[in-house]
UniProtKB/TrEMBL annotation, chain B:
A Pfam family per the record: Response_reg
Start-end of DNA-binding region: 152-250
Organism this protein belongs to: Neorhizobium phenanthreniclasticum
Gene3D superfamilies: 3.40.50.2300, 6.10.250.690, Winged helix-like DNA-binding domain superfamily/Winged helix DNA-binding domain
Residue ranges of domain Response regulatory in the record: 29-143
Residue ranges the record marks as coiled coil: none
Name of the protein in its database record: Response regulator transcription factor
Length: 470, 252
């Protein structure tokens, strides 16, 4: 529980709400004191004004009706409820009349406002005599009489008490609000973070299929979870690719390595120089093939990791297609195929020329390798066209094609549908093309060249590029 | 048996000529900066067999020192070196005004590393693993002891003549009609006459793609070119060098 409390205090939400409480409390205290001071000043001003007016009334009454009128008026006024303080004193300060039992000595000696609040004792206090504070204006009449009009300032303690109570109430309300924030937002956030850490623990333990929980509100936490989940998805994919590659390497490189080893052993045992020489040449050829395979694997993994993304520039897809067709045209001819092109000019994409070129070369290699397997005159072609906001670069053949259900499989590394593996190749060509397309934000489509021809439907591989935004 | 297609286009005149080790090579002197001692020993031995004088440095600092103090025809620099990175050796050499051609060897990937390597001041780039014949051919071309000077407007090999300005090709005074790409192919071969050029070098310099052509594309283009320049003549000029590439040479 204590540990939890400590953890809670460490949480940002709690620290923030504590800070808010402190700030609010300071503001509230300032406000209360300011309002109090202001109203006290206003009150004092009003008091002085009414007192001043009364003194003027009294002075006028005295001038008009002499002492009798003065006494009558003061008596009348003193009887009113919540009345002011009235005193008439003789020339020596002895009290002659008024509604006050006694006054702090010296107050009646000077004309005008009392300089400080003074104490006095009112009549008939229920709880016994108690001194009160008051301010007063003293008038010295020409016959030596002194008239004082004053006002009780009330109990200053009562006022301070009021202020303190207001402060307490305000603080209580704020404290309560903060508690709600702690429990509502802080605890909620804490719980969500706990759930996220729990999911992360599982992921760290090796279960990459786990995802962080995402709520419905779409707030910062959900956005964070979303991006972390996207990251996990990418990691999972990369990891899966890696595992697949290492499995395939184990399977598919063991065979040529074994063959290499056997050939070397044969060459070692061979006595005849010419046979030995050709065996050694075979070993070199086999090694070259292995090196190619490794290079292709390395290339695919680098393309997939996206580390080549920095070398993107504007490339002329039409020119690359034309170059590739030109490069492969004699090869096709030599293989007894005709190569036709239908290229829309001037299609520019953002990409890596080398990679796109290599992808097309791979497709052309494949097309030439497999076109001859179909019936009728073998043909291949390159087609580039703009369609539906994409650039579609297709390499097609009229060979035996690939059945629809096997098309996903051929994209996998090392997969070659030709079981006998009589044709040279690494089984990595299409994987590289797919990786290149992914790097370019496009996709790879496999379809039949002639759907109606079930004997030799042919294969069309289309690289679909997104049209760059202007 | 799975045979590599790379060697499948051997032609009749490929007489097993040695890969560049001809006696006429004037001594070329190169510096190999490579920290893998076994690879360095193999390279040194193979270069010496090809008639090239080799110095070896096994780290970046001593390589930089040797490259600055001595004069070489070509530097072969591994990209990852102890004490000083290969690229930094190159840029430092260039800063000191040493413009010896540099070939970068790298175990890293192909596309982007090539670009950074050349940007650092390298002249050629070869990804590991490589065939020694490829390395040798590239070093010899970089050393440029046999080829035709760059500024020559007309290249000549025997009775074959290539005019770089008018794009005319003549053999024994008779015009040979070539496609633009065939012209560039012949131009590159003749520029490096007497030197082995590999298929990868041809793909790089004629088509501007930098990877190992996996099939016989280059061979087919070369044999087309060969048939055009040799069809009506007795003397073969364009030779296939077994396990390495091609060479154009007058066997007079």
């Amino acid at each position: 529980m204590l540990a939890r409390a400590r953890l809670m205090f460490r949480s940002t939400a709690v620290r923030l709400s504590a800070l808010y409480i402190l700030l609010f409390a300071l503001c509230a205290a300032f406000l209360v004191f300011y309002v109090t001071a202001m109203s006290e000043r206003l009150l004092a001003q009003q008091t002085r004004q009414t007192l001043q007016e009364e003194v003027q009334d009294i002075e006028r009454a005295y001038e008009r009706g002499g002492i009798n009128l003065l006494l009558r008026m003061m008596e009348r006024r003193a009887r009113q409820p919540g009345a002011n303080l009235y005193v008439i004193a003789g020339p020596n300060g002895e009290m002659l009349a008024g509604n006050v039992a006694s006054v702090q000595p010296g107050v009646l000696d000077e004309q005008g406002w009392t300089k400080f609040p003074f104490s006095y004792e009112p009549y008939s206090e229920a709880a016994g005599p108690r001194r009160h504070l008051a301010v007063a204006n003293v008038l010295l009449l020409d016959n030596g009489l002194r008239v004082m009009v004053g006002r009780d300032l009330g109990d200053p303690n009562r006022f301070r008490g009021l202020v303190r109570r207001a402060l307490m109430v305000a603080l209580a309300i704020m404290g309560f609000g903060a508690l709600i924030i702690w429990f509502g937002i802080g605890r909620n956030a804490l719980k969500r973070i706990d759930r996220m850490s729990a999911a992360s623990q599982k992921i760290m333990a090796g279960d990459l299929s786990q995802r962080l929980p995402v709520g419905k509100s779409g707030d910062e936490f959900d956005r964070l979870s979303d991006s972390l989940n996207a990251m996990l998805g990418r990691i999972e994919k990369l990891n899966e690719g890696l595992r697949q590659v290492s499995d395939n390497i184990a399977h598919d490189l063991k065979t040529p390595l074994t063959r290499l080893r056997n050939k070397a052993a044969d060459a070692l045992a061979e006595k005849r120089e010419d046979v030995r020489r050709s065996a050694l040449e075979g070993i070199i050829a086999e090694s070259d093939q292995l090196i190619r395979t490794f290079n292709a694997l390395l290339m695919i993994s680098r393309v997939e990791a996206g580390s080549i993304a920095a070398e993107m520039s504007e490339v002329d897809l039409s020119a690359i297609s034309a170059d590739s067709a030109e490069l492969y045209e004699p090869v096709a001819e030599e293989a007894g195929l005709s190569l036709t092109t239908a290229l829309e000019p001037g299609l520019i994409v953002r990409g890596n020329r080398e990679l796109i070129g290599q992808a097309i070369f791979n497709l052309l290699d494949n097309a030439i390798k497999y076109a001859a397997g179909g019936k009728g005159e073998p043909k291949i072609g390159v087609k580039l066209a703009k369609s539906d906001g994409t650039f579609r670069l297709s390499v097609w053949d009229n060979g035996p094609g690939i059945p629809a259900e096997k098309r996903d499989e051929v994209l996998k590394r090392f997969v070659r549908l030709d079981e006998s593996r009589s044709k040279p190749g690494t089984g990595l060509g299409l994987s590289l093309v797919e990786a290149v397309m992914e790097l370019h934000g496009g996709s790879l489509e496999l379809s039949s060249t002639h759907k109606e021809n079930t004997e030799a439907p042919g294969l069309t591989v289309t690289m679909v590029f997104p049209v760059p935004k202007p | 048996m799975e045979t590599s297609v790379r060697y499948s286009a051997e032609t009749a005149e490929s007489n097993g000529a040695k890969t560049g080790g001809d006696a006429i090579v004037p001594h070329m002197k190169i510096l190999v900066i490579e920290d893998d001692l076994e690879a360095a020993a193999y390279m040194t031995k193979a270069f010496r067999e090809a008639g090239i004088v080799v110095d070896h440095a096994s780290d970046g600092e001593s390589g930089l020192f040797m490259g600055t103090e001595n004069s070489y025809d070509v530097l072969v620099i591994d990209r990852m070196l102890p004490r000083r990175d290969g690229l930094s050796v190159i840029s430092e050499l260039r800063k000191r005004g040493i413009n010896t051609p540099v070939l970068i060897l790298s175990a890293l990937g192909q596309v982007d590393d090539r670009v950074t390597g050349l940007r650092a001041g390298g002249d050629d780039y070869l990804p590991k693993p490589y065939a020694f014949s490829e390395l040798l051919a590239r070093v010899e071309v970089l050393g440029r002891r046999k080829g035709t000077p760059e500024q020559d407007m007309v290249y000549r090999v025997g009775d074959l003549e290539l005019d770089r300005l008018s794009h005319e090709v003549k053999r024994a005074g008779k015009e040979v009609l070539l496609q633009p790409r065939e012209f560039r192919l012949l131009e590159y071969l003749m520029k490096n006459a007497g030197q082995v050029v590999t298929r990868t070098m041809l793909l790089e310099n004629v088509w501007d793609y930098h990877f190992d052509p996996q099939t016989n594309v280059i061979d087919v283009h070369v044999s087309r070119l060969r048939s055009k320049i040799e069809k009506d003549f007795d003397k073969p000029l364009l030779k296939t060098i077994r396990g390495a590439g091609y060479m154009i040479k007058d066997e007079a």
